[in-house]
């Protein structure tokens, strides 16, 4: 299984210096909603910005084969 997280940051809630603050708020809210036993495969969790607008989703899915995975610097 794989956990996917998608957040679009193109609206007013992410403007100016609020990008990091808003992403962190969304991730904290998501963490509070992901309790043991509550993740249902293929059932997306809607993610909303501070204004209530839908900005993304998180979902537990079947894995796909990756040809290349991007490297991430810590």
What is the secondary structure topology, with strand pairs?
Elements lengths: L1 E6 L11 H15 L11 E4 L5 E8 L13
Antiparallel strand pairs: 1-3, 2-3
Summarize the structure.
With 74 residues, this protein is of the alpha+beta class.
Please describe what this structure looks like.
The mean pLDDT is 87. This protein has one helix and three strands. By secondary structure, the protein is an alpha+beta fold. The longest helix is centred in the middle third of the chain and has 15 residues, at 19-33. The chain has one helix at residues 19-33; strands spanning 2-7, 45-48, 54-61. It has one domain. Strands 1-3-2 form a three-stranded antiparallel beta sheet, with helices on one face.
Low-confidence stretches: none
Element-level helix/strand string: EHEE
The fraction of residues assigned to DSSP E strands is: 15-25%
Radius of gyration: 14 Å
Total domains: 1
The rounded distance between the terminal residues' Cα atoms is: 24 Å
Summed up, the helix count is: 1
Structural classification: alpha+beta
- How many strands, what sense, and barrel or not for the largest sheet? 3 strands, antiparallel
Helix content: 10-25%
Give the averaged pLDDT, no decimals.
87
DSSP E strands, number: 3
Shape annotation: globular
Spatial sequence of strands, sheet with the most strands: 1-3-2
């Amino acid at each position: 299984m794989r956990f996917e997280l998608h957040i679009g940051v193109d609206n007013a809630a992410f403007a100016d210096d609020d990008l990091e603050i808003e992403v962190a708020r969304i991730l904290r809210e998501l963490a509070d909603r992901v309790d043991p036993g509550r993740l249902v495969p293929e059932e997306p969790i809607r993610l909303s910005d501070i204004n209530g607008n839908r900005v993304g989703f998180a979902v537990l899915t079947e894995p796909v084969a990756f040809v290349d995975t991007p490297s991430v610097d810590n």
